[in-house]
């Protein structure tokens, strides 16, 4: 009888953490994303430390114990890539004539969110197109507005993948966003506890298979309040509050081997059931990241 050998696709990768320094006791981390920098002001006080050898568990190896939105804070589900959406790669997505195709895709994925989360309503209020182009880790944040092409919408600009661990909004930052995303009636429902609101990121590759720089996701149950710092992102006419993660050896990390465009990763950014908790810490692994080859893959 032939023996079946289970191949582990767990890996070790380098992840870029916020530097754990005394400065954060005196000064809040910030980044200035304004077009003109005030004289004598540094664009950012943020610095990162690259931590090599971080263990990432392959979600495929978890069997029926796969991570869930309600527990670890993320999960993967199958959804066939809509081949009729008008694009099949990242190429050309920043061209104005492709704008309607992108809008149609976002509308489709908004409906997917309603179905998957059993929601009564979903709003798509932000999105990004990223490319795996960086060759090494960065010590400070990339302010990609500096290289924005004229005539290209900010969200349509193809930006490098984020090689620093971050959340897509701090608890206070998300609450601020909800104040103008929700109607007055919805805000009353939320404040009374009669409704639940979740901010969820839906992430999928546009390439057939992710071959490098996979998405790394942290089990939110392993993150302590002192592990993260809020960061102000200062624009010309508003301020967003995001967050970065400092290193803690107790953090548990996951990845999905050979993720395809038919596999969507959903992770919670904010949940009204736990409104002050951190959610959705994620990052791209810093190259070089040696990915094992799946012997069962074509």
Key words describing this protein structure:
five-stranded mixed β-sheet; alpha+beta; disordered N terminus; 298 residues; 14 strands
Low-pLDDT windows of residues: 1-6, 294-298
The average pLDDT score comes to 85
Q: Identify the overall geometry.
A: globular
**Rg from C-alpha positions?**
20 Å
How would you spell out the order of helices and strands? EEEEHEEEHHEEEEEEE
Percentage of residues in helical conformation: 10-25%
Q: Which sequence of strands runs across the widest sheet?
A: 1-3-12-9-14
- Span between termini: 24 Å
Count of alpha and pi helical runs: 3
Strand content: 15-25%
The biggest beta sheet is recorded as:
5 strands, mixed
Number of E-type strands: 14
Describe this structure in words.
The protein is an alpha+beta fold and 298 residues long. The chain contains three helices and 14 strands. The strands form four sheets. A five-stranded mixed beta sheet has the order 1-3-12-9-14, with no helix packed on it. It has a four-stranded mixed beta sheet with strand order 2-10-11-7, with helices on one face. The protein starts with 10 loop residues before the first strand and ends in a 14-residue tail after the last strand. The N terminus and C terminus are likely disordered.
